[in-house]
Automatic annotation (TrEMBL):
Keyword Cell division: no
Protein name as it appears in the record: Transketolase 1
Lineage, highest ranks first: Bacteria, Bacillati, Bacillota, Bacilli, Bacillales
This enzyme's EC code(s): 2.2.1.1
Gene that produces this protein: tktA
InterPro entries according to UniProt: THDP-binding, Transketolase_N
One of the record's GO molecular function terms: transketolase activity
Organism: Kurthia zopfii
Keyword Cell division included in the entry's annotation: no
Pfam families: Transketolase_N
UniProt keyword terms in alphabetical order: Thiamine pyrophosphate, Transferase
Cofactor: thiamine diphosphate
Family: Belongs to the transketolase family.
EC class: transferase
Domain Transketolase N-terminal: 8-269
C-alpha cells in the first residue's frame, strides 16, 4: 500500500496525544512518543517490508522498540497501517488491555518482541539478524534506541559484536532528543558524537533530521550496498509538536489533563470536538 506520509505522520501524532489523554491518571510517556513519530512514519509507511498477515509473512522486516517507552507513536503507527484495530487500541492502559506502557509481543498485531529493561533490544536484534542470515533471508532488522539508553554498557558490547559479525542486515536508529528520565543527556552522561562512536566501532553511520520523513528514508536507502551494520542518528525534539512538552523533562512521563489535551491538539492544528 502507498501512504501519504505527511498525512500519516499527522495522524500518528494526533493519535499519540489521544492515547496519552485516554490513559488518565496512569500518565503516559508523551515526550518520548512524540519524538518518534516521523521515524515510525518512514519505517512503516515506506521503508519496511510488512504485510497484513505478519505472523505468516516470513520475508517481513523486523522492528524492535528497545526504547520501549516510546509506545504511543508505535501503537498509533501500527493502528494506522491496520495491524492494530481502533477498538483494540482504545483499551490502552485499561484493565486487561493488551496495550500497556511497554510493548508485549503480539506478532499478529505487528509487535515482534516484548521489551522492558533498557539496553536489551540491540542484543536481541543481533540474535534475530544472525538467525535471518542463517536462513538466507533478505529481511532487515530495525532497532530503535534512545540516546539516554546509549548510556548502557550492553549497548556498546552489542555494537562491537554486530560489527565483528558483519551484520549488514541490522539497522539501528537512535532517537537523539537530548533528554532522558533524569534530565539532559549532556548533564547526566554526555555521549558526545554518537555517529562517530558507531563509526569507530566499524559501523556505517550518518545523521539525519529525525522529523523529516524524506531525510530519514534517504539516509536509510543510502546504505544499500555494504557489509557493515548501519546506524542512523536521528536528531529529534522531545515532545515534538506540542508547545508545553517540547524539550521539557516534565513531559517524559506525566498526566495530560483535559485543558492540556485541548492545547496539544491546537498546537498540531486539530480542532477539539
Amino acid at each position: 500500500m502507498v501512504y501519504n506520509l505527511t498525512e500519516m505522520s499527522k495522524a500518528i501524532r494526533k493519535r499519540s496525544i489521544d492515547l496519552a489523554f485516554s490513559s488518565g491518571n496512569n500518565a503516559a510517556h508523551l515526550g518520548p512518543g512524540l519524538s518518534l513519530v516521523e521515524i515510525f512514519t518512514a519505517l512503516y509507511g515506506y521503508v519496511m517490508k510488512i504485510s497484513n498477515d505478519m505472523t505468516n509473512f516470513e520475508d517481513r522486516d523486523r522492528l524492535i522498540l528497545s526504547k520501549e517507552h516510546g509506545v504511543l507513536s508505535y501503537y498509533a503507527a501500527l493502528e494506522y497501517i491496520e495491524l492494530i484495530g481502533e477498538n483494540d487500541l482504545d483499551t490502552f492502559m485499561k484493565s486487561h488491555s493488551e496495550f500497556l506502557g511497554h510493548p508485549v509481543m503480539n506478532r499478529a498485531k505487528g509487535i515482534e518482541f516484548t521489551s522492558g529493561s533498557l539496553g536489551m533490544g540491540l542484543s536481541l536484534g543481533i540474535g534475530v539478524s544472525i538467525a535471518l542470515k542463517k536462513k538466507k533471508s533478505n529481511s532487515k532488522v530495525y532497532v530503535i534506541l534512545g540516546d539516554g539508553e546509549c548510556n548502557e554498557g550492553s549497548i556498546w558490547e552489542s555494537v562491537m559484536s554486530a560489527s565483528m559479525q558483519k551484520l549488514d542486515n541490522l539497522v539501528v536508529i537512535v532517537d537523539r532528543n537530548g533528554y532522558q528520565l533524569g534530565g539532559k543527556i549532556e548533564e547526566t552522561l554526555d555521549m558526545g558524537d554518537l555517529r562517530e562512536k558507531f563509526k569507530v566501532f566499524g559501523w556505517n553511520s550518518v545523521q539525519c533530521d529525525g522529523h523529516d520523513v524524506n531525510d530519514i528514508i534517504s539516509k536509510i536507502k543510502s546504505n544499500q550496498n555494504s557489509d557493515k551494520p548501519f546506524a542512523l542518528i536521528a536528531n529529534t525534539i522531545k515532545g515534538k509538536g506540542v508547545s508545553f512538552a517540547e524539550n521539557n523533562i516534565e513531559w517524559h512521563h506525566s498526566v495530560l489533563t483535559k485543558n492540556l489535551y485541548k492545547q496539544a491538539l491546537q498546537d498540531i492544528g486539530v480542532v477539539y470536538e
